[in-house]
Design goal:
Elements lengths: L1 H9 L4 E6 L3 H10 L6 E6 L5 H8 L1 H4 L4 E4 L3 E3 L3 H12 L3 E9 L7 E5 L5 E6 L10 E9 L18 H11 L3 E6 L6 E3 L3 H12 L16 E2 L4 E3 L3 E2 L4 E2 L4 E3 L2 E2 L4 E2 L4 E3 L2 E2 L4 E2 L4 E3 L2 E2 L7
Parallel strand pairs: 1-2, 5-9, 11-14, 12-15, 13-16, 14-17, 15-18, 16-19, 17-20, 18-21, 19-22
Antiparallel strand pairs: 3-8, 4-10, 5-8, 6-7
Amino acid sequence: MEHILLLLKCHGFNQVISNTYHLADSIESYFQNNPVDGLSIEFQREAKLSGVAGGIRRCAGFLKQSTACIIMGDALTDIDLGALYKEHKKAVTNGCLVTVAMMQVTDTSQFGVIVVDKNNRIVSFQEKPKAEEALSNWANTGIYFFEPEVYEHLPSETEAPVYDVAKNLFPDLLTKGKYMQAIAVSPNSYWADIGTADQYLQSLRDISAGLVKLDLKPSISDSARIAEDAHLIGANEIAEDVEIDSEAILENCIIWQGAKIGANAKLSHCIVGPNTVIAANEIHSGKILASETISR
């Protein structure tokens, strides 16, 4: 989320609202203690989940003040939001209400697919079509620009939780004859939904390989205590106050703050939770390891 805020700031945005539910206290506390200079952020907390459309509906009073950028909190991306904004504003003069950032993909079965005409006007959508059924290979990145009128087409508070933006709102706008466009982002842009452990680890490797343009903290914290004969292989993310003992081997792992890795432990493609202790000689591969999941 901090990377998203830095990206917004980089492209000239200065007012943000965040709809929160899961870990709301932690998120608000973090950004109170680590504010992004030049960026004002408000929080709209949900007591009960109201879905994607419901979350946007709750923030509509803030969003409808002007053109708004909608971006999901689990996206890792360096997409040029400024360029998309300019393309959106050009189309607004012709009545465009929505601009969607789209990116070419090889496996359409994992994404919502967008079909556009020669002028980038959206014609239709497909939800995760098989390759042989896909009408295009342009994926919806979940990054949008909305004009204020869009919020008038959201359903009531009771209907919103089961009403999705991509699956329901956009097709409904097409049915009503509303003008929406999709703009291709640069093929050199990076975009991933890090909502799964596998993609989280893959994105770490992508960052290490220089595929993502982000303002990142060092991958190994200065406060980490790592034995001289420990072995770090590939892309590892080592947080604050981590201890790694003698002869431990870590390959492509993410180690959260305060964790302790015992002597001669061997971890490959693992995520180790905060303050978790991995005993000496333990061997794990491809696991999420948190204190309550590790047998002693």
